[in-house]
Amino acid sequence: MRAALGMVCLLLAPALPARSVNFYSIEHELALGKQLSAELERQVKLSDDAILSEYVNRVAQKITRQSDATLPVTVRIIESGDLNAFTLPGGHIYLNSGLLRLTESESELAFVLAHEIGHVAARHATREATRNELLQAGSIPLMVLGGWSGMALREFASAGGRTGAMKGVRDFEAQADRLGLDYMDRSGYDPSAAIDMFERIEGRERKIPGRVKRLWSDHPITASRIDAAQKHLNEIAGHRPEYVVNTSEYEEMRLRAIALEERRTAQVNQAPHLGAEKH
Ligand SMILES: [Zn+2]
Q1: Hey, what long-range contacts does 68-73 have (CB within 8 A, 24 or more apart)?
Q2: CA of residue 182 to ligand 1 center, whole Å
Q3: What is the distance in A from the centroid of ligand 1 to the CA of 180?
Q4: From the CA of 209, how far away is ligand 1's center (Å)?
Q5: Whole-model pTM?
Q6: pLDDT tens across 55-76, in order?
Q7: How much distance in Å is there from the Cα of 173 to the middle of ligand 1?
Q8: How far is the CA of 84 from the centre of ligand 1 (A)?
């Protein structure tokens, strides 16, 4: 899974992504999304915890109802320790179990989902696909809008630091953050949970020095994201007398998420051992 690379910066990245061109009709995006999500799901392991999945989707629907999304939103949990969530065309959101496990309240989970719903609402995946098609006629790019681990940004960086393309990705991330905060505010979730979530991801990434060094030397994006999110939080402060920070249901679901991650890591740790026994 990688963002389409090898693009040349022929086009100036739009200052306002919302105004950028989109070749895809809603119907076309839905069809593309169906195809890409099926392709992805052949390559990853989806969680079979139906109760956890139903809960995450219920939180996502609560936010989607307050959003500008014109596509139906579905969330699927991938069993993976990478701190990531991403959105494919057609409203298909994928949340890695590692990132779900990292959240510590329903409002933090809500921010992760609201950010991705922001990508759905702004139709970033097909906007990016449109831009890639303008540059690479004939290819069907498989888009992954990372954002959380900075994966997409690192891939762009390793492809030669094409600043125009990177600016496009950064604009999308900034817009998804902003929309996500608005949707949280509208659906009653405490938007300041975004800052806690950013800081926790940053803290976790610092524990993997090589990866983080590369990320931070190329793109100190997280610091600027936190700054921008804080500014927008100040703008929307005082909209509501109180917000939902956490729920008892989240705490129950958190135990399920922890159990899921423990099962997954036990399997990962067991795999080389089993392999060794074959010899
Ligand atoms: Zn994003």
Answers
A1: 68/121, 68/122, 68/179, 69/117, 69/120, 69/121, 70/26, 70/121, 70/123, 71/26, 71/29, 71/30, 71/33, 71/120, 71/123, 73/117, 73/120
A2: 15
A3: 10
A4: 23
A5: 0.79
A6: 999 999 999 999 999 999 999 9
A7: 5
A8: 9
